[in-house]
Amino acid sequence: MKLYSLLLILFILVTAFSCKKKNANEDEVSDFKKGEMLTHIANQIVLPNFLNLQNSVSELNTSWNQFKTVQDDASLEELQMRWQTAVLSFHKVKVYEFGPSMNVGLRAALGTFPTDTTKIITNAGNANTNLALLENIDAIGFPALEFIFFRNNAKNELIGSTQMQTYVDNILTKMTAEVNSVNAAWNGGYSATFGTSTGTESTSGFSQLMNEFCKEYELAKNAKLGIPIGKQSLGIPQISYVESPYAKISLLILKQNVITLRDLFQGKGANGIDNLGMDDYLLALEKSSIVSTINSGFSSILTDLNALNDDILIEIQNNPGQLDALYTKMQNLVVAIKTDMTSAFGILITYQDNDGD
Amino acid sequence: MSIYKFSDRISIAPLVVFRLLFGALTLYGTLRFILKGWVNELYIEPQFFFGFYGLEWVKPLSGSLMYLPFILMLLGSLGVLLGYYYRLSIVCFFLSFTYVELLDKTNYLNHYYFISLVAFLLIWLPANASFSLDAKLGKVSVRKTIPKFYIQILQFQLACVYVFAGIAKLNTDWLLQAEPLFTWLQSHRDMPLVGTFFSQKWTAYAFSWFGCAYDLFIVFFLLNNKTRPFAYFFVIAFHLITGWLFPIGVFPIVMIVLTLIFFSEDFHLTFIDKLKSILKYNEISNDSSETNSNAKRLYNASILFVILQIVIPFRYLAYPGDLFWNEEGFRFSWRVMLMHKEGNATFYIRDKNTKGEIEIVNSRYLTKRQEEQMSTQPDMIIQFAHFLKNEFNDTVLVINNKKYRIENPSVHANVFVALNGRPSQKMIDKKIDLSRKEYNLQHRAWLENSNK
Fold first, then answer.
1. Is A28 part of any domain?
2. What is the distance of C-alpha B428 from the center of its chain?
3. A227 in the same domain as A186
4. In a shared domain, residues A69 and A173
5. Hey, are the CB atoms on B176 and A13 less than 8 Å from each other?
6. Judging by DSSP bridges, how do beta strands B402-406 and B395-399 pair with one another?
């Protein structure tokens, strides 16, 4: 009897409480659908950006063939420019490391750094090198091409070595095949699958997108900024771990990573139009404070990056304090993204049995 | 009300049915666990294990030897199901299962604790004294009846799960905020037909209040002959719905099936008789009841068991502060589906000589599941901090070809936790040297307070 009356009192309390809190936008809560957001992301963000990557890799191939025919400074510069365009295109899709990209291992195949220059030279000298081997992962992709196209005396090194030219051919062939296959898979039905994969299990498209979003952000923070400036090594900078030491665009790439994640968060399409994104889901859950924390975090990080040189090596020399401040900002945003946002969405990290405690 | 007599007797049928179901469930559960590759993922791959306080000496076997306790579980379950070398089988199952559960608190689940307790109880009960290979082969004498409290102790164990889970729900988050259910239910917003229903606040309130009332009172309706069929319908519906919405694996089936222990002896007798006729099984009952002194001893021991089971979930009252935040006295208390807790813990090693700092990448040492669990639970945070201290103490780091000797470093952490839909708050301040904080069962006053 005692429990019944306790329950009754609590029931009256909750009714009174929930009446008090009711407000006009209560109805909006139910409107947001994850499926609509995923479809928008697939059609307006992922598909155009993979097409863009496919095109820029194709142009990179063209300018490489052009260089092999006309081996002069102008065609090397053209080649370097195409490399830069392509690498930035890659960083616009690197976050989607699930489904087709995961099948190919695109992130590792195209973007493993630091590249092993000794291995590249050895591999080029060996006609039987198998680029598909895991041990060659740090001798292929954009970082390997960067070394070959941007190192000192790159033009003459290339002209003098047909073996190295063949090695570049092989790297490009592999990259082109991988990019084309991922692009084809997204176009050939995966985007529709992704758009309806809204479940809460860790293998759903939505969970994978959120997990990769968090992972990509932490990767950018740790590998591209934290490790080079010494966050994991007693504060002693480790310049051998810098991402782009030959083309010297490490911070430009980091900026692209941050912009990609911000646009994905806001649901900004490749055409620049803002539509359904993670921010809209948070707003539907009445978590506008998380949205403003994340938005202002991104914009403050980008302001810092805009004020810095594209080459982190220069800034490690000249402005270590500013890099440290940037790192702190990136670190602070981790909590908003990884803890506040994912916890609001109720995403599961593992697929094992759980009783929720 | 009549005074309870331990000499009251009841048919053995409910106990036999319980044995069959328990054996079948654990056999299925163990096979499922092995086939999903979890032995490897949970007990072979990790480099570090979060042992329970006072039981850290319980260590995993190396490499593939970890499959051994699981094979013992399979054999034990099979023995229990068939009633073949029953006592040996249930002891074998209990020991191997409990051993595995004690290895890493990352994998702690209330329902695993429940399985351990039930297996422990079954060790002492003559569940093989009818409709078993042991009885058929004359290894044990066949019995028709057993003391009533043999069944009641099992009913008590199930009642504990429900009632304590219900009491645990009597808190403001659950009743007044409908959290964590709102967060969990709204994530089903895209389901066809019912998605919109799940995304509404009032749905979460309805589920919270119904769930709480269900847990608190279902046992009383199950005990009553008149309300039992109606109550069991709710049991089935409740567990099927939770099983459908939440990733709770085999536990809905376990609860649906084992709750049959509340049914009458006639129900179980009919069930057994049907099985007997299908299997053309018959046995000669000589009903050699056990000695009174044995039953008396078990009766006294079960009183102690009952008292412990009632006291343990309330031990949290001995600690000040917010139970959900501090998690002091949280486990082993049937707090099921009660919190949505997510955290981010960044650890730092500080070296006194160089005045330098090393930020730790947790995934280098922990699996994803371990990191998830550790990031929100203070006792695990301390355990991991002590592990890191050991890893870095007296080591030489080579950075840019120069050697740096680390001696007696301090360990710090920035920990932020979001609990039940509230914004994340700081749980541990970076100032604190965690390597100097002892890992014990005392209140951790150095944790930051949570604000509701």
1. no
2. 27
3. no
4. yes
5. yes
6. antiparallel
Contact A350 B368 (CB under 8 A): yes
**Structure letter (DSSP) for residue A274:** B
Exposure string of B190-226, with b = 16+ CB inside 10 Å and e = fewer, is: bbeeebeebbbbebbbebbbebbbbbbbbbebbeeee
DSSP label of B362: G
pLDDT tens digits in sequence order for chain B, 452 residues long: 345 566 789 999 999 999 999 999 999 999 999 999 999 999 999 999 999 999 999 999 999 999 999 999 999 999 999 999 999 999 999 999 999 999 999 999 999 999 999 999 999 999 999 999 999 999 998 999 999 999 999 999 999 999 999 999 999 999 999 999 999 999 999 999 899 999 999 999 999 999 999 999 999 999 999 999 999 999 999 999 999 998 888 999 999 999 999 999 999 999 999 999 999 988 877 665 566 678 888 999 999 999 999 999 999 999 999 999 999 999 999 999 899 999 999 999 999 888 999 999 999 999 999 999 999 999 999 999 999 999 999 999 999 999 999 999 999 999 999 999 999 999 999 999 999 999 999 999 999 998 87
Which positions in chain A touch B107 (Cβ < 8 Å)? 352
Contacts of residue A47, defined as CB under 8 A and 6 or more positions apart, other chains included, come to A186, A187, A191
Rounded CA-CA distance B373/A277 in Å is 28
- d(CA A249, CA A79) in angstroms, rounded, equals 16
Q: Are residues A46 and A171 in the same domain?
A: yes
Number of domains in chain A: 2
Encoded tokens for B395 = 């080591």
A146 and A274 share one domain: no
Instruction: Single out the residue of A148, A151, A163 nearest to residue A64, CA to CA.
Output: A148
Does any CB of chain B come closer than 8 Å to the CB of residue A11?
yes
Please check whether residue A256 is in contact with residue A269, taking contact to mean a CB–CB distance below 8 angstroms: no
What is the residue whose two structure tokens read 């076997």? B61
A331 touches chain B (CB under 8 A): yes
Tell me which residue of B369, B339, B195 sits closest to A348, measured CA to CA: B369
Residues of A with Cβ-Cβ distance to B368 under 8 angstroms: 349-350
- Answer yes or no: is A174 within a domain: yes
* Residue-wise DSSP of B162-213: HHHHHHHT-SHHHHHS-TTHHHHHHTTTTSTTTHHHHTSHHHHHHHHHHHHH
C-beta of residue A261 within 8 angstroms of C-beta of residue A213: yes
Looking up tokens 């602070």, which residue turns up? A332
Which of A170, A198, A226 terminates a domain? The answer is: A198
Q: What are the helix and strand counts (H, E) for chain B? A: 18, 8
Structure tokens at B392: 């870095």
**Residue A27 lies inside a defined structural domain of this protein:** no
Q: Which domain covers residue A221, as residue numbers?
A: 199-350
Q: What is the CATH number of the domain that holds A117?
A: 1.20.1420.20
Q: Do A49 and A160 fall into the same domain?
A: yes
3-state helix, strand, coil in chain B (%, to 5): 55, 10, 35
Q: Does B266 touch chain A if contact means CB atoms closer than 8 Å?
A: no
Q: Cα separations (Å) of B349 from A232, B168, B378, B403?
A: 9, 38, 18, 17
Min Cα–Cα distance to chain B from A71, Å: 38
Q: Same domain for A188 and A209?
A: no
Task: Please state the length of chain B.
Answer: 452
Residues A167 and A247 both lie in one domain: no
Task: Give the pairing of strands B395-399 and B425-428.
Answer: unpaired
